[in-house]
Amino acid sequence: MEIDLLDFVEQCRDLAKQALGKHAGEPASGGFARWVHVVLHCFRLEEGHSYRETPNRLKYMAEIRETLGLDRDDLPDYTTIYKSFDRLKMWVWRALLRVSAQQHPQSGHAALDSTFFDRRRTSSYFRQRSGSTVQTLKVTTLTDVESLAVLDVHITARWKHDTKTGPQVVRRNADDL
C-alpha cells in the first residue's frame, strides 16, 4: 500500500500535537519542540531510514521540512534524533497510542492478549554495557475486537500472572470499554 509521505507527516504532526497537548511545544532535547521529535521518529520508521540518514533525507524534502518548521541549515543532528527517542517518557508514547487508537471506530469490546519478547539475541556486549540483565519481556495488549486497534500496551520484565496484569490494563481504559 502506497502512502503519500507529506500526508503521513502532516497526520503525524496533528496526532502528536493533539496527544501532547500543552506539552507539545516544550523542547524534549536538542532545542526542538517535543512534537517535532515524535514526528521525526515516525518519519524515520515509515521510510526505514537509519538515524544517520534521516537528516540527510530531510535536506532534500522541502515540503516536509516546512511542515515540521525546520530550516535546511538548522536540521537536528542524527545523534539528537537518536538520543531523543530514549528521552521521551512513557506518557508521550501512551498519549500517542491513545490518540491514534481513537482514529478507528471502536466497538466497546476488547480482547486482552499477552506474549513474550525474547531479548537474548541482543548482543551480550550491549547488555553488559547497559547493565541490563533482562532477557525476556512480557507484553500485554488491549485490542478492540472489530477495528483491531491497539488501545493499550503493558510491558514488564517481571512476569506477573495475567490475573494481575489484566485488571490493571482494563482499569486504565475503563472509560473506553
Number of helices in the DSSP assignment: 8
- Uncertain regions: pLDDT < 50 for 5+ in a row? none
State the separation between the terminal residues, measured CA to CA. Answer: 31 Å
Q: What's the total count of β strands?
A: 5
Which structural class do the helices and strands define? alpha+beta
How many individual domains? Answer: 2
Q: Within the largest sheet, what's the order of strands?
A: 3-4-5
Give your account of this protein's structure.
The protein has eight helices and five strands; from the N terminus they run H-E-E-H-H-H-H-H-E-H-E-E-H. Helix 1 crosses helix 6. The two termini are 31 Å apart. It has two domains: 5-101, no CATH class; 110-176, no CATH class. 47% of the residues lie in helices and 17% in strands. It is globular and about 55 Å long. It has 177 residues and is of the alpha+beta class. The strands form two sheets. It has a three-stranded antiparallel beta sheet with strand order 3-4-5. Strands 1-2 form a two-stranded antiparallel sheet. It has helices spanning 5-20, 34-47, 53-59, 62-68, 78-87, 90-101, 124-130, 162-172; strands spanning 27-29, 32-33, 110-118, 136-144, 150-156. A hairpin with a 5-residue loop joins strand 4 (136-144) and strand 5 (150-156). It comes from Natronococcus jeotgali DSM 18795. Residues 107-172 form the Transposase IS4-like domain. This is ISH9-type transposase.
Task: Please give a handful of descriptors for the protein shown.
single chain, 177 residues, alpha+beta, three-stranded antiparallel beta sheet, two-stranded antiparallel ribbon, 8 helices, 47% helix, 17% strand, Transposase_11, DNA binding, transposase activity
